[in-house]
Design goal:
Helix content of chain A: 25-40%
Largest interface: A-B, 37 and 32 residues
Strand content of chain A: 25-35%
Strand order of the largest sheet of chain A: 6-9-10-3-11-12
Shape of chain A: globular
Bound molecules: adenosine-5'-triphosphate, magnesium ion
Number of helices of chain B: 14
Order of helices and strands of chain B: HHHHHHEHEEHHHHEHHH
Distance between the termini of chain B: 10 Å
Largest sheet of chain A: 6 strands, mixed
Oligomer: heterodimer
CATH topology of chain B: ABC transporter involved in vitamin B12 uptake, BtuC
Number of domains of chain B: 1
Number of strands of chain A: 22
Strand order of the largest sheet of chain B: 1-4
Structural class of chain A: alpha/beta
Shape of chain B: globular
CATH architecture of chain B: Orthogonal Bundle
Chain lengths: 504, 314
């Protein structure tokens, strides 16, 4: 069978740095081709060459019998290639429907004048939203959606143009099991229709379930392409990282001390997104928060960090009652918040890596409400070098602009910012989103180390296996309320899911 | 390739353009343009532009704008003038009329932006008109003059053959350069301009920084108002009309991104000088002031287009 897309001997250099070297890659009709590799391996770059964003330095692409030395976005669209970018590319100011049909709004003639046929696009949008399982009106502004729902809109957008090839660059990084299952059902349907799919993900469990073939990249080089049924996950991991990964024993356990380092009492948000929540965090423990999307976990963390108005509630940090009215107060009091949507709430596109890392440390040491104090380039750069080492940020220099990093490495920079701030209470909201398997276990180890040093750690995650592997206790949320608490020994995926979904 | 060009453009482009323009004018009119006298004149004329442009720079850095600087020049000039003729000591008149009033007018802009959440364009478009109106009312639309000699000599005089306005402008630029490059305040303002949401979640008090930015712009315009009053020997209620164009043009030509988060004070100073040189050159070449306006407008559009081209993805 002739492939839908064939990429031959692709090499891509960014101002001297080789991101891809001599890569061959093809996509067959009706298959899911998995593209696997560590953060910065070159996956997104290869796909951006296919969607016409980047020009290859060398090599060619063959589409429907024609050989191209490079593609423009128009070439790519003409050949019915559509892509879900890792960094979501929706326009916040437009409605869901307008986002789905941006650039190709269907028109109808009214007295001979073409006008946008809104009735038609709303109908089609409603259909697509139902297909991806998003329960929203087509006229909702995208800016109002949480990141997980934006990701669903992005999937719907790829479906809106009847593509022959769909590239999915980490489509499920913000989704929970339920939405992932919906996506997989869609993918199976697309396969039957003969669509070729490229699937990029760091969630190893998903791969076996959905993939047909897998191509592994490492440092921009082609390691191998195999049918998925011929390789085990462990083999894939060692192809990816080039060494054996022995799972570190994180040793979750119920805290032995009874020293409470952080306590929340009867916290209610003004907008009622969180109601009457109370919990305690003991010294040395990592406290996890489970729940469905929209269950109020991120909303609770926002409230703790001063990013949302409170109706009532008290917080005690290391025995001292704290009043936090803004993120500034929070940082000053020694809180850190690795937010869920790091590109929108953590990232400075105009800063180099080192400035992205130092920003919150500077706020911490500043005086007079955050305005008095001096920057210290050397110290800041040294701090950035440290984080680069600890988190294994892949970059040629910390003087690079953050936008030049791969998605996962950008995430690491933002985590590095908060590690550098040396906070006393750290909130990790989906800390391993977009992070490769090797780095994931390193981040868990860092969290454990921080907890052992006596820092408070709160962790929100939509991946139950991750919560079960890392947390000493797990709190389950539903509808903005605390529903259940399990110790690590008691907790199972089933029990958590039950608490998260049932109406008790 | 584009990347390299962009980098070197951002670093050296502005100096290149400056030298190119100076060389061109030197060749076109060696007998007038390249005289010490004329060059001093150019720098002197640029001083006021540079002063307001340095303040304007901060407001553009946070992806905002300050359209009221021209009116602040007039209002601070008139108040300083009133204080002087009423016998207030010179130093006190400058401090109150120029710096304090300028800062207050800026603070009003900042508070309005913070409280209403409207774009600074709207707010300062409004205050531009309001401040001008107040100026006309308190001056009765008449120029104020009759200042002590010490005021004129102290502010618009010369030290060692260097015009004092130039020294004032460079001192202000130096202080602001220090703030942007060496202080946490400066870094925070860049962060705010790059991504306000991220800045807020990183612990930066956005409203406070916005307020400070507008106060800086107001103080700069206030100082410019005092300098202008001293140079003219009179406080003109219609002084500074249209000056916001020069301020914005200097900042933009100097490489400040209209989208926020990027730019330097050195660039802004160079931008101010370029505008001064071009105006002076066109004068020397006997080009009518009408055409000068066309040149200025074209320059702004060209500079922003370049910025947009280079900040687009490669
Ligand atoms: N615009 C750019 N300028 C310079 N270097 C870049 C640019 N884009 C990507 N790179 C480099 O190319 C390499 C590959 O990046 P790419 O984004 O393809 O990685 P990835 O495999 O998608 O990783 P991740 O899993 O983190 O998304 C990285 O080392 C990155 O730093
Ligand atoms: Mg990527």
């Amino acid at each position: 069978m002739k492939p839908l897309v064939e990429m031959r001997n692709i090499t891509k250099k960014f101002s001297g740095v080789t991101a891809l070297e001599n890569i061959n890659f093809d996509i067959l009709s009706g298959e899911v081709h998995i593209l696997l590799g560590e953060n910065g391996a070159g996956k997104s770059t290869l796909m951006k060459i296919l969607s016409g964003i980047y020009e290859p330095t060398e090599g060619s692409i063959i589409l429907s019998g024609r050989e191209y030395s490079k593609l423009t976005p128009a070439d790519s669209a003409e050949n019915k290639i559509s892509i879900i970018y890792q960094e979501l590319s929706l326009i916040d100011e437009l409605s869901i429907a307008e986002n789905l049909f941006v650039g190709k709004l269907p028109t109808k003639k009214v007295m001979g004048i073409p006008v946008v046929d809104f009735a038609h696009i709303h109908e089609k949008t409603a259909e697509l939203l139902k297909r991806v399982g998003l329960n929203r009106s087509p006229s909702t502004l995208v800016g109002e959606l949480p990141i997980s729902e934006k990701q669903q809109v992005e999937i719907a957008k790829a479906l809106a143009s009847d593509a022959k090839v769909i590239i999915m660059d980490e489509p499920t990084s913000s989704l929970t099991t339920e939405e992932v299952n919906k996506l997989f059902a869609i993918i199976r349907q697309l396969k039957k229709e003969g669509v070729g799919i490229v699937y990029i993900s760091h969630k190893m469990k998903e791969l076996a379930e959905i993939g047909d073939r897998v191509t592994v990249l490492k440092d921009g080089k082609h390691v191998g392409t195999k049918p998925l049924k011929d390789v085990t996950t462990d083999q894939l991991v060692s192809m990816m990282v080039g060494r054996e990964l022995n799972a570190k024993n994180l040793n979750p356990h119920r805290a032995e001390t009874n020293e409470v380092i952080f306590e929340v009492q009867h916290l209610t948000r003004k907008d009622r997104a969180v109601q009457d929540v109370s919990f305690k965090l003991y010294r040395g423990e990592i406290l996890g928060f489970a729940g469905l999307i929209g269950s109020g976990r991120t909303e609770l963390m926002n409230a703790i960090f001063g990013a949302a108005e409170l109706e009532s509630g008290d917080m005690t940090l290391f025995g001292e009652k704290v009043i936090i009215k803004s993120p500034h107060d929070a940082v000053k009091k020694g809180l850190a918040f690795i937010t869920e949507n790091r590109r929108e709430t953590g990232f400075f596109h105009n800063f180099e890596i080192w400035k992205n890392i130092s920003i919150s440390s500077l706020v911490r040491k500043s005086k007079w409400g955050g305005i008095w104090g001096f920057v210290n380039k050397q110290a800041e750069q040294q701090q950035a070098e440290e984080q680069k080492k600890v988190l294994r940020i892949k970059c040629s220099s910390i003087l690079q602009n953050i936008t030049e990093l791969s998605g996962g490495n950008q995430q690491k920079v933002i985590i590095g910012k908060w590690l550098a701030a040396q906070a006393r209470l750290m909130i990790f909201d989906e800390p391993t989103r977009g992070i490769d398997v090797g780095a994931k276990s390193e981040i868990y180890a860092i969290m454990r180390k921080l907890a052992n040093e006596g820092k408070g750690i709160l962790m929100v995650s939509s991946e139950l296996p991750e919560l079960l592997a890392v947390c000493d206790r797990i709190i389950v949320f539903k509808d903005g309320r605390l529903r259940a608490t399990f110790t690590n020994e008691e907790a199972t995926e089933e029990k958590i899911m039950l608490a998260a979904t049932s109406d008790m | 390739m584009v990347n390299r060009f962009r980098e070197s453009w951002q670093k050296f482009g502005i100096f290149g353009i400056f030298i190119l323009i100076v060389a061109a004018l030197g060749i076109l009119s060696p007998e007038y343009f390249l005289t010490t006298n004329n060059l001093t004149q150019v720098v002197l004329q640029s001083a006021i532009t540079i002063l307001i442009a340095c303040g304007e720079f901060f407001t553009i850095l946070i992806a905002g704008i300050d359209l009221s600087v021209g009116s602040v020049i007039a209002l601070t000039g008139v108040i300083t003038g009133k204080l002087l003729v009423s016998g207030t000591p010179v130093v006190l008149a400058i401090l109150i009329g120029g710096i304090l009033v300028g800062g207050l007018l800026g603070a009003v802009n900042g508070i309005l932006v913070n409280k209403t959440g409207l774009h600074p364009f709207i707010i300062t478009l409004g205050t531009m008109s309001i401040y001008r109106g107040i100026t006309l009312i308190i001056s009765d639309a008449k120029p104020i003059f009759g200042f002590p000699q010490s005021f004129k000599e102290g502010v618009a005089g010369w030290i060692f053959h260097i015009p004092i306005p130039v020294i004032i402008a460079l001192t202000v630029a130096l202080i602001l350069h220090f703030i942007t490059t060496k202080t946490i305040l400066g870094r925070n303002i860049y962060a705010l301009g790059g991504n306000a949401q991220s800045a807020w979640f990183s612990g930066i008090d956005i409203k406070k920084h916005q307020l400070i930015v507008f106060i800086i712009s107001g103080i700069c315009a206030g100082i410019a108002g005092v300098v202008m009053t001293a140079r003219l020997g009179a406080a003109e209620p219609l002084a500074g009309v249209g000056f916001e164009t020069f301020a914005i043009a200097s900042a933009i030509i100097g490489g400040t991104s209209f989208f926020g988060g990027k730019g330097t004070i050195i660039g802004v100073v160079m931008g101010g000088l370029i505008i001064g040189v071009i105006n002076n050159g066109l004068n020397i070449l006997n080009v009518s002031t009408y055409y000068q306006q066309i040149v200025m407008g074209s320059l702004i559009i060209a500079a922003v287009t370049l910025d947009k081209l280079f900040s687009a993805k490669k």
